[in-house]
Specification:
There is one protein chain. This protein has helices spanning about 15-20, 45-60, 70-85, 95-105, 150-155, 160-165, 175-185, 225-230, 250-265, 280-285, 300-305, 340-350, 355-360, 370-385, 390-395, 410-430, 435-445, and strands at about 35-40, 65-70, 90-95, 140-145, 145-150, 185-190, 205-210, 290-295, 310-315, 325, 330-335, 365-370, 400-405. By secondary structure, it is α/β, with parallel strands linked by helices. A six-stranded mixed β-sheet has the order 2-1-3-11-4-12. A five-stranded mixed β-sheet has the order 6-7-8-5-9. Strands 10-13 form a two-stranded parallel ribbon. Helix 16 packs antiparallel against helix 17 (about 435-445). It is globular and about 70 Å long.
Length: about 450
């Protein structure tokens, strides 16, 4: 899976220095010349990559792939610790949000010699993994977008058809048809809907929209579809920007409106969200919320929940006239001190191949980075009677949709550390959004060092 921005490991200056100067030497104990160690976090994808490893080993006699899977939070904690201790894996699944930090710490091996053809992958995925030094540090693996999941039982009771949910629009003044739909889906303890006279916003039984938390610095599955469809961008440049733009009037108007939905009783409160125990999918499955913005990596989870009849709709159109979604892409990276660097690069080359990505796509868990891999995934979902067009449509339709990436900058962990409490203060305590200007100034001061 990909729960994205929930745990960031802060490295102390001394530890960072030890990494930059290459003091973390050696490798994983018992790695052996014929073994390639590979770490990933998604348990759902493990069988697919075991299948790829089996094929790889047949094609490369004498090379074995040892796969280690662990949960999201443990993954990044242990990976960072492994760089410090010199026990890092040969290859690991990398996330664009972590890329800037790892590149800055000089713990990644350049992959220019793999001759990655950017045109062989969905547009933009390969380019994201080029560092400021011009070297490549990741081979494209898969991609995801965001859509609106909805509980069909609750939308049917509210009289909202699939076509209506796919045709919603919003604006920061009155919320547009999106806010009207969310209000109508909200029901208080007396059975009054959010758009009916007498609605009690302080005693809500079913919220129109589940909470995914404050969204922190990127808002991937919370506020980002709204901010981007209003024309806002995270930084001054698409990649390796030097100035964040959380001080923008457009951004702050979006945030003010979005978290204002909680004040009105339509968006579940901040306290309803816990990453492990009560994420958005659990709120929708329990009937606590009628809809939730979530990523493509959660498709199997929603559709596989017993007793939940779920559908998906595209994100609402914004003031720009377009719908927007983050298009995130993972990659496979080789560690700078990989014990089996030659074997690691062979494995990464195979992971990035259409052959492996078609194999992964056939499991119907994620959308692989190559077009062929994506087609295999769509076909696999169709066999499960799952319509994934709300996720694939934005990638194919550039007229009506805008896709955008995670911000890639230096000091990513510092940005997170500053924005997380600031956004939580706005959501949980109704702090004025103008306070984000001061936070933005602090972030840009760090980037300008």
């Amino acid at each position: 899976m990909r729960i994205r921005t929930r745990t960031v490991v802060a490295l102390t200056g001394a530890l960072a220095l030890s990494l930059v100067t290459g003091c973390a030497q050696g490798g994983a104990a018992g790695a052996g010349a014929g073994t390639v160690t590979y770490w990933l976090w998604d348990a759902n994808q493990l069988p697919a990559y075991q299948a790829c490893a089996k094929d790889f080993e047949k094609q490369n006699p004498g090379l074995d792939v040892k796969i280690t899977q662990m949960g999201w939070a443990d993954y990044w904690t242990k990976l960072t610790a492994s760089f410090i201790a010199g026990t890092e894996p040969d290859v690991f699944t990398d996330h664009i949000q972590k890329f800037g930090q790892f590149a800055d710490l000089n713990v990644l091996e350049p992959l220019d010699d793999l001759d990655i053809d950017e045109a062989a992958y969905q547009p933009g995925l390969a380019a994201n993994w080029t560092g400021q030094d011009g070297h490549r540090y990741g081979a494209p693996k898969d991609w995801d977008t965001v859509a609106l999941f909805y509980n069909k039982k609750l939308t049917k009771e509210a009289g909202l058809a699939a076509d209506e949910l796919n045709g919603l629009a919003w604006n920061p003044e009155d919320g547009g048809t999106f806010e009207k739909a969310i209000a109508h889906l909200t029901v208080d303890r007396n059975g009054k809907r959010g758009d009916e006279e007498g609605f009690d916003k302080d005693h809500v039984e079913v919220y129109g929209l589940a909470t995914g938390g404050a969204g922190d610095s990127d808002g991937q599955t919370t506020w980002s579809p709204f901010a981007a469809s209003a024309g806002w961008k995270y930084t001054d440049k698409a990649r390796w920007g030097t100035e964040y733009q959380y001080d923008s009037k457009t951004f702050q108007s979006v945030i003010d409106w979005y978290f204002g939905l909680a004040e009105k009783g339509y968006l579940a409160p901040f306290t309803d969200y816990t990453d492990g125990a009560n994420p958005p999918n659990a709120q929708v499955a329990s009937g606590r919320a009628a809809t939730a913005f979530d990523g493509a990596w959660m498709i199997s989870t929603y559709y596989g929940t017993k007793g939940l009849d779920v559908g998906t709709a595209v994100t609402p159109a914004g003031p720009t006239g377009k719908r927007a979604t983050m298009m995130n892409g993972l990659a496979d990276s080789v560690t700078k001190n990989a014990p089996n660097k030659a074997g690691a690069k062979k494995w990464v080359r195979y992971l990035a191949s259409d052959e492996c990505q078609k194999t992964v796509g056939g499991y119907g868990i994620v959308f692989p980075a190559t077009p062929g891999g994506t087609e295999a995934a769509v076909a696999a979902y169709e066999k499960k009677d799952i319509d994934v067009s709300a996720f694939t449509g934005p990638v194919a339709d550039k007229k009506d949709f805008t896709t955008f990436s995670f911000p890639v900058t230096d000091y990513a962990a510092d940005v997170y550390a500053l924005m997380r409490p600031a956004m939580q203060d706005v959501y949980a305590n109704n702090a004025p959004v103008k306070g984000l200007t001061k936070t933005n100034d602090q972030i840009n001061f760090i980037l300008g060092q």
